[in-house]
Structure formats: structure tokens, C-alpha cells
């Protein structure tokens, strides 16, 4: 694997990470405690199919370069390549890069596992008439990780009974005790994740 192929491998990794950046950022925000930056790269979501295509093409070409039969000239010049190749020029390294790229591309499908369980252990209800259910319309969620991020932050509020966020429907259905938490507080927390409440019903 020569320098040209190394550049291809680098480009493949970069495009794989970029393709899932919109879903990696919320998890990094959770880990760092800076939840407001969660939606920073959501604008990249429309480019995701193109970035996935670039990643696959670049890595496929890198594998082709690595596995293609050598010409007679290359075999004659083999005397200089008798020494052990650097690790970054081996099939093993290209294999590791390919697996890493695949994990990055699949990240939106398993990002939710990084968030704590959404189940409440104890809910004390004083007056059933105080229970209210509101569905918030949210702009900016692009994967299950985004929805889990919203659920995680809203669940931290006192008086929340359940939260069910869906990035496909761009909503978060919240059941809460209005004597302990207000609609404005819930909306503020959702907006604090970096996604935006654009309506409620």
C-alpha cells in the first residue's frame, strides 16, 4: 500500500466519521455534559447518503489497489521491498480501517445504547387530575441517538412520568405532573439539548 493508497484510506475514514457526525455529537455531548452542542452537526444529515457512498467507493478502491495482481515490472523491482513493510501499508491495517469505517457508518443504529435507561423507578402521584400529556414537535433530530438525548435530559426533571421521543416523527410525547413541572420548563430543557421545539399539542 503506497502513499496514494494511504491517502485514500484517510479519506475513507474521514468520510465515514463525517457521515455519522450528526449522531456521534449527541453521545459526545452526553459524555462531556455539554448537551447544548448535541445538534451542532444535524445540518449534515442530508449529505449522509453521499458520504456513505464516498466511504464505500474510497475503501473499495483502496482494497483493489492492495489486492490487484502485480505487474512484471513490480515483481522485478521487488528486491527493494524485501524489508518488512510498515504496519500502515499492510492488509491488517486496511482491514482495521475498514471495520472502523463500518462501525462509524452504523453508529446511528446503535447510538441509543450509550444513554441510560428511560425507565423511572418511582413515580409518586398526588392528584391524578394534575397528570398531563403533551406532544412536542421538535426540529433537528436525525437518529435514535438524538431521540435518546432528548429523553435523557427531560427525564432529569422532577415530575416527569414518561418521555417517548421519535426522530422519525420529530416529536417527544411527555407525560408529567403539572404541579411539579411546567410546560415551559420541559420546553426549555428540550431546547437546551440543541434541538428546537417548534410546536406542541
Gross geometry: elongated
User: Looking at the chains present, what oligomeric state does this protein adopt?
Assistant: single chain
Largest sheet: 4 strands, antiparallel
Structural class: alpha+beta
Count, helices: 6
Calculate the terminal CA-CA distance, rounded to whole Å: 58 Å
Structurally, the number of domains stands at: 2
Strand order across the largest sheet: 2-3-1-4
- Kindly state the mean pLDDT as a whole number? 76
User: Share of helix among residues?
Assistant: 40-55%
Q: Helix and strand succession?
A: HHHHEHEEHE
Q: Low-confidence parts, pLDDT < 50 over ≥5 residues?
A: none
What does this protein look like?
The chain folds into two domains: 3-113; 128-200, Alpha-Beta Plaits (2-Layer Sandwich). The chain has helices at 3-32, 48-67, 72-76, 91-110, 144-155, 183-192, and strands at residues 131-139, 160-166, 171-177, 196-200. The model has no long low-confidence stretch (mean pLDDT 76). The protein contains six helices and four strands; from the N terminus they run ααααβαββαβ. It starts with a helix and ends with a strand. Helix 1 runs antiparallel to helix 2 (48-67), helix 1 (3-32) packs parallel to helix 4 and helix 2 packs antiparallel against helix 4 (91-110). 48% of the residues lie in helices and 14% in strands.
Amino acid at each position: 500500500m503506497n502513499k496514494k493508497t494511504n491517502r485514500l484510506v484517510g479519506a475513507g475514514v474521514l468520510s465515514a466519521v463525517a457521515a455519522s457526525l450528526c449522531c456521534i455529537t449527541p453521545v459526545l455531548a452526553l459524555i462531556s455534559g455539554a448537551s447544548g452542542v448535541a445538534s451542532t452537526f444535524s445540518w449534515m444529515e442530508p449529505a449522509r447518503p453521499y458520504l456513505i457512498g464516498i466511504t464505500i467507493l474510497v475503501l473499495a478502491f483502496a482494497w483493489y489497489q492492495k489486492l490487484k495482481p502485480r505487474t512484471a515490472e513490480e515483481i522485478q523491482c521487488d528486491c527493494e521491498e524485501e524489508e518488512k513493510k510498515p504496519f500502515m501499508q499492510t492488509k491488517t491495517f486496511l482491514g482495521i480501517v475498514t471495520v472502523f469505517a463500518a462501525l462509524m457508518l452504523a453508529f446511528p443504529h446503535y447510538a441509543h445504547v450509550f444513554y441510560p435507561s428511560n425507565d423511572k423507578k418511582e413515580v409518586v402521584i398526588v392528584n391524578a387530575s394534575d397528570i398531563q400529556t403533551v406532544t412536542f414537535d421538535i426540529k433537528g433530530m436525525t437518529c435514535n441517538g438524538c431521540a435518546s438525548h432528548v429523553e435523557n435530559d427531560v427525564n432529569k426533571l422532577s415530575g416527569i412520568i414518561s418521555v417517548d421521543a421519535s426522530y422519525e416523527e420529530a416529536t417527544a410525547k411527555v407525560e408529567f405532573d403539572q404541579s411539579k413541572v411546567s410546560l415551559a420548563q420541559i420546553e426549555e430543557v428540550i431546547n437546551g439539548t440543541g434541538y428546537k421545539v417548534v410546536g406542541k399539542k
